[in-house]
Design a protein that fits this description.
Chain lengths: ~130, ~140, ~100
């Protein structure tokens, strides 16, 4: 048990990302307001970005911009940061479209509570 | 009282934020930043302006036709810049194979097609942010 | 508390235990001998100044080595903006919607 704790403290970005992911998943599943579910999805995406970008770090390295310093400086890996740039843009697009859908739901049903909307739909189907 | 302080201070600070956003877009190949971060800074200055002063004043600065024009032609600009390679017989979106003069590294006019594409992407991202904000704020209640 | 919330909490604790064991078995954080630093990033770091003439390596990757992905990503942003405008414009021809 203590060996597991030591290994977790050495890899501290990965364990923090796992905790953030679980917090986001619990928020989506237990809260009943539509806005809080959307915020939970955003927290889960942030945890995934954290794992990828933290995996490319080297201790004692500088930023990946070539400068005329002494030859032999260690640059960190630029590839995970460049690949996650696309993912952040996709996350913004999904959040914007989900907000537009919530506004349309509010116009039709009059409430933004997921349980009440499911109840109204069940009464419509039973009729 | 709160409205008075907000209007006076934002009238002084917001033009400097817009100019800083353009600086980050133009120097994308020398210092950290790039096209996406600079485009979001420029878009945020317009969003802050229309939050403080109301939506009608924000609409009068950027009417709908200008936003649609910038967004559509910004996406087409990328494809046209890629056709430079096909005209000369090398693959699509080629930079050094097409024989473009690269200049000396470290100055503003280096990199060939990289800075031109970066300006197009930056202005496009700013226009998308402003369009999304205006559409979500103007629903009739 | 309701039974449903307790069951959700139990499943989340089991899943988090499994994921924490997987996170402990990953290669150590920050060592330059990790398998993630292979010959692809070496080629990009060493050849960025001659191939592109731009000292910023992240911009050279995003806009020159992999410019195809950035083109499709701008198309994704364009599609999202159009989808939001279509969903929220109210067409006033058929009375009240």
């Amino acid at each position: 048990m203590s060996i597991l704790l030591e290994k977790l403290i050495i890899n501290y970005p990965y364990s923090i990302a796992v905790v953030l992911f679980i917090i986001g998943a619990l928020t989506v599943l237990t809260r009943s307001s539509l806005f809080k579910k959307l915020l939970g999805i955003n927290i889960m995406e942030t945890a995934v970005f954290l794992i990828f970008i933290a995996a490319g770090n080297i201790r004692g390295g500088t930023e990946p911009i070539l400068s005329e310093g002494n030859p032999g400086t260690v640059y960190i890996n630029p590839l995970p940061s460049a690949l996650m740039l696309t993912g952040i843009v996709v996350s913004v697009s999904v959040t914007a479209f989900a907000l537009a859908l919530i506004i349309r739901l509010h116009r039709t049903y009059g409430t933004t509570d997921a349980n009440c909307i499911a109840q109204m739909r069940k009464e419509v189907i039973d009729r | 009282m709160k409205d008075f302080i907000l209007k006076r201070i934002s009238a002084i600070i917001l033009p400097f934020i817009c100019i800083y956003g353009f600086y980050v877009i133009l120097h994308g190949h020398i210092s950290p930043g790039g096209s996406f971060a600079g485009g979001i800074i420029v878009g945020l200055s317009f969003i802050a302006f229309s939050t403080v002063y109301g939506t009608e004043k924000g609409r009068s600065k950027l009417p709908e036709k200008v936003l649609i024009w910038i967004e559509s032609y910004g996406t087409l600009w990328y494809g046209i810049m890629g056709m430079v390679g096909i005209v000369k017989g090398v693959p699509f979106l080629a930079n050094k194979l097409a024989g473009i003069n690269l200049g000396e590294p470290g100055t503003l006019s280096s990199g060939g097609l990289i800075s031109l594409i970066g300006i197009g992407v930056g202005i496009r991202v700013a226009s998308t942010m402003v369009t999304l904000f205006f559409t979500l704020m103007e629903e009739e209640s | 508390m309701k039974i449903r919330n307790l069951l959700i909490l139990l499943v989340a604790l089991l899943a988090s235990y499994g994921m924490l064991i997987a996170a402990a078995e990953l290669p150590p954080y920050g060592i330059p001998d990790n398998p993630i630093h292979n010959q692809v990033s070496e080629r990009y770091v060493n050849g960025a100044l001659e191939d592109t003439g731009v000292p910023n390596i992240v911009t050279a990757i995003v806009l020159d080595y992999r410019a195809y992905d950035t083109m499709f990503e701008t198309i994704v942003l364009f599609t999202a903006a159009i989808a939001v405008v279509i969903t929220l414009k109210s067409w006033k021809k058929a009375g009240e919607r």
